[in-house]
Amino acid sequence: MATQYQKAVAGEITPEMQQVAKRENLPPEQIRDEIAAGKLVIPSNRIHLKGNDETGVKLDPIGIGRAVTVKINANIGASPDSSCKEMELIKLRWAVKYGADTVMDLSTGGDLDEIRQHLIAHAAVPIGTVPIYSMIVDKNIEDLTYDDMLSTIAAQAKQGVDFFTIHAGILREHLD
């Protein structure tokens, strides 16, 4: 399947681009052109866009870039000391109620997959993660492999995560 970027470069206007244009009161062609130029993104996972059968909630796409309004991200997350998917859902709802356009799940404790899935199932806003937090729950960061990293990102994408923060800094001693 083609990405929003690939479709924009091909001159196509997707339903997501139309939704962003409507939300931003801009022509759909401008949204398409901004995406094609690499100046705007629509964080929208196909799985999240389809919605959750149980909750009936699906992603309402937004645009992030210079041509559109400023967006607010809220960080939430369970810790090893306090972990509850219902508490994270309450945080999600409060964040959205008070203006968050996106929510980043920074959970580091509890059943991370279950918490993430629960949030996506109940969120009409894009949900992001920091995959390395999941990668190092049971493993030292120095022991991570290329496959560990890619498989974690792929697994979270399959859950419906809309965007990622990738901590790509490395130590000189790890270059080899």
Proportion of residues in β-strands: 5-15%
Alpha carbon gap, first and last residue: 35 Å
- CA radius of gyration: 17 Å
Low-confidence stretches: none
Tell me the series of helices and strands, N- to C-terminal.
HHHEHEEHEHEHHE
The rough form would be described as globular
Q: Mind summarizing the main beta sheet? A: 4 strands, parallel
Strand order of the largest sheet: 3-4-5-6
The tally of helices reads 8
User: How many β-strand runs?
Assistant: 6
Helix share, percent: 40-55%
Quaternary assembly:
single chain
Chain-averaged pLDDT = 94
Structural class: alpha/beta
Properties at a glance:
176 residues, alpha/beta, 4-stranded parallel sheet, two-stranded antiparallel sheet
Summarize the structure in words:
Helix 6 links the parallel strand 4 and strand 5 (127-129). By secondary structure, this protein is of the alpha/beta class. 41% of the residues lie in helices and 10% in strands. The protein is globular, with a radius of gyration of 17 Å. The protein has helices at 4-9, 15-24, 28-36, 46-50, 85-97, 112-122, 131-135, 146-159, and strands at 40-41, 64-65, 73-76, 102-105, 127-129, 163-164. The chain contains 8 helices and 6 strands.
